[in-house]
Specification:
single chain; about 725 residues; mainly beta; Immunoglobulin-like; Maltoporin, Chain A; 3 domains; 5-stranded mixed sheet; about 55% strand
């Protein structure tokens, strides 16, 4: 009897202990400075004295993570939410739900994703990264990405005239085809081709990240000199929130938009639409763009989440062509030509945070790119204006797996596999279109280590392309905290990186054929060898940071078209060109007040054509600088983001640069210019907000691309309304 009683007591106590352990949990809620929940923040559970993270999860639609079977007394929590400062807190064993409020960060502290594919503070990313938050974009009210990108350090935006004109990005001396552009995890470049930033609407964008330098190790083709990534907002309000509004301005500008967003338990959603119209300032300058999209997520349980995104854009613009050259109207504008984009993006992402320390992302994507440009009769009053009808239909579909393992608090491994099928018809329907299809298989891996004051990032990517075979691209980046500093001089960091990158040929280059081209099955991708070295000095505990970076890029195997039969105009695409670019970027990042920030930068770029066996113009001879790359450029962005009002002042200053009219008019440069934009909003009450924006406020008359006059001073003003929400 006595033994039975003791056994029963022990069994009872053990059962109570097991139940207590099973029921123990740590519940974390993450909110922003305005107390709105933050979805998708990475939360790490760190056990004191242990080098291995106990668990890693991402916050749900309610801003929550739940770590089960854990006692809170011996743990710390680290929160990495893109766009905010990293937070580290000790857990309170008495609170049922521990709320962590994030804070706005200095630029150096801001958590970013693109540089490493995982959340890290910008100063540990091993690359130059700049961001535009959703609040900054609300003050800017950009019509398209080119309106916002031009104010980021190191970005030179060249728009061919009016809104909707082809808008290209040049970074660190690279071509306009050397930028990887990703929206909601989906690559939206034309394969191997340039990207038109003038038709990428930023309505409902949560943030934009801009990484300079070769990033092909993590992102594959096209990431030769930069990566631009955009994310759509997620719903966060328990009560559904309807937002709508409109604005108008000069040049017949009208814009209307609406969104319905919210979050209920484990489910979040955001459905949105935007319509923009403008008649422009001259002949055939009209532009219209419509955007519709959805971002829907569901947390299946504490470890598994699913997200689906859809985005459709349709834009139409007149194409007046080049006619006004640095203020000299040498040709009449074309009154008849027009172009249209009609693109559809879709993706689903399955995220799994298990077992402890592991995160898995399975993503399927489909992107349909459709471009149509028609010039029915040509214009005999213009030089070289002939009838044409270009039609491009390209589909990019594939699957990607990314795995992340935090094996230690100071070590993180990222690896993945990507398969993508590129299939499309490109070219002029009157002269024979080109059909091409190729399959890419990519394997990549990257290791991040932080040992004492040293952070090291090393990775590589292996690519098998069905057209050009195999290629490999490595990258190494080192960041050293040389001096910890004190109150005034608050830390000195040295940084160095070496990387290579590649860009696959365009479909018409790989699969070119009769009547005007010969197929070249041996055509290879273009490549870059890039290294950079920099120093970052913090002042006054990080409120001010001065960055200086030297970059050195060698571009080789660049593709050129060489005529072989001059009588019948038959040629071939060959890897024959080589070019060089070097320069320096100096950037000041300042948090002047808690809600007032400044980002100012100057960039010097020196370029040279090293080899070009078949130049089409003397401007392309070896020894000449690369076109449309200014030696001197600068940007400034001053932002105030308050509770009742917000405002921004942006400046883009670009020096004289070589260019070509390509019509035999002997116009060989584009003059320098200064563009200043102003914007702001004021909350009349919690439901109604008024806003206004002025672009090119100094009314500068200039060409970003020679022959295409930019818009003079233009303004918009409007109201937005909110129904529902908290």
């Amino acid at each position: 009897m006595r033994f039975s009683s003791v056994f029963a007591s022990v069994f009872f106590l053990l059962a109570i202990g097991l139940v207590a352990i099973a029921s123990a949990e740590i519940k974390i809620k993450v909110v922003d400075p305005q107390d709105a929940v933050v979805t998708g923040a990475e939360v790490q559970l760190l056990k004191l004295g242990k080098p291995v993270p106990a668990a890693v999860q991402s916050t749900s639609a309610e801003g929550l993570v739940v770590f089960r079977g854990e006692a809170s007394s011996s743990y710390r929590i680290q929160v990495l939410a893109p766009g905010f400062a990293a937070e580290m807190v000790d857990l309170s064993p008495t609170a049922d739900v521990i709320t962590i409020k994030l804070r706005l960060a200095t630029a150096a502290e801001t958590v970013v994703v693109t540089a490493t594919r995982t959340p890290v503070p910008s100063q540990a990313a091993g690359a130059d990264v700049d961001t535009l938050s959703g609040q900054q974009l609300e003050a800017m009210q950009p019509v398209a990405a080119d309106d916002a990108m031009r104010f980021l350090p190191g970005a030179v935006v060249n728009t061919a005239g009016q809104r909707g004109g082809i808008s290209s990005l040049f970074v660190r001396g690279g071509d306009s085809t050397y930028n990887k552009v990703i929206v909601d995890g989906v690559t939206i470049n034309e394969p191997g081709g340039t990207f038109d930033f003038g038709t990428l609407a930023l309505a409902q964008a949560d943030r934009v990240e801009f990484v300079r330098g070769a990033q092909s190790t993590l992102y594959g083709t096209d990431a030769m000199t930069s990566v631009v990534q955009v994310w759509t907002r997620t719903g966060s309000m328990p009560i559904p929130e309807l937002r709508f509004g409109g604005d108008g301005g000069n040049f017949g500008t009208a814009n209307g938009y609406a969104s319905l967003a919210g979050a209920h338990k484990r489910f979040d959603y955001n459905f949105f639409g935007d319509q923009f119209n403008s008649s422009g300032q001259g002949v055939n300058d009209s532009y219209s763009d419509s955007l519709q999209g959805a971002n829907v997520g569901v947390a299946v349980n504490d470890e598994v989440a699913l997200r689906v995104r859809v985005r459709h854009s349709n834009s139409h613009t007149g194409v007046p062509g080049e006619w006004d050259f640095n203020g000299d109207p040498l040709q009449p504008p074309d009154p008849y030509e027009w172009s249209q984009y009609n693109n559809l993006l879709g993706s689903f992402e399955l995220g799994v945070a298990a077992p402890n320390g592991w995160q898995h992302h399975f993503t399927g994507f489909d992107y349909l790119y459709r471009y149509n440009e028609l010039n029915v009769n040509g214009d005999p009053a213009r030089i070289d204006d002939f009838p044409s009808h270009e039609v491009d239909r390209i589909n990019r579909v594939g699957f990607e797996y990314q795995g992340d393992y935090s094996e230690r608090t100071w070590a993180h491994t990222t690896f993945g596999y990507r398969i993508e099928n590129e299939n499309g018809f490109v070219g002029d329907v009157n002269f024979g279109q080109t059909h091409g299809q190729r399959l890419n298989n990519d394997l990549y891996a990257q290791q991040q280590l932080t040992i004492g004051r040293l952070t090291a990032i090393a990775g590589g990517r292996f690519v098998h392309n069905s057209a050009f075979g195999n290629t490999e691209v490595p990258r190494v980046a080192l960041t050293l905290l040389a001096l910890r500093g004190g109150e005034v001089f608050s830390g000195t960091r040295l940084r160095f990186s070496y990387s290579t990158g590649f860009k696959e040929p365009r479909l018409e280059e790989t699969f070119a054929g009769p009547p005007y081209s010969l197929a070249n099955p041996g055509l290879k991708p273009e490549r870059v060898r890039a290294f950079e070295a920099g120093i970052a000095q913090d002042f006054y505990k990080g409120r001010y940071t001065l960055n200086a970076t030297y970059f050195n890029n060698l571009f080789r195997d660049q593709i050129n078209y060489e005529e072989i039969d001059l009588v019948n105009f038959i040629g071939e695409y060959l890897n024959v060109n080589k070019a060089f670019a070097q320069g320096a970027e100096v950037e000041l990042q300042a948090k002047l007040r808690s809600r007032l920030s400044l980002n100012a930068a100057y960039t010097y770029t020196s370029t040279e054509i090293l080899d070009n066996p078949a130049p089409i113009d003397p401007l392309y001879n070896p020894g000449m600088p690369l076109l449309r790359r200014p030696k001197h450029s600068a940007t400034v962005l001053l932002s105030y983001l308050g509770r009742r009002w917000g405002a921004d002042l942006g400046g883009s200053f670009v020096g004289r640069r070589p260019d070509d009219d390509f019509d035999g008019l002997n116009i060989l440069h584009a003059a320098g210019y200064a563009r200043v934009d102003l914007g702001g909003w004021y909350a009349i009450n919690s439901r109604i907000t008024a806003y206004a924006n002025v672009a090119n406020a100094l009314n500068d008359h200039y060409n970003e691309v020679v022959g295409y006059p930019a818009l003079t001073a233009n303004f918009r003003a409007g109201m937005r309304f909110r129904i529902g929400g908290e």
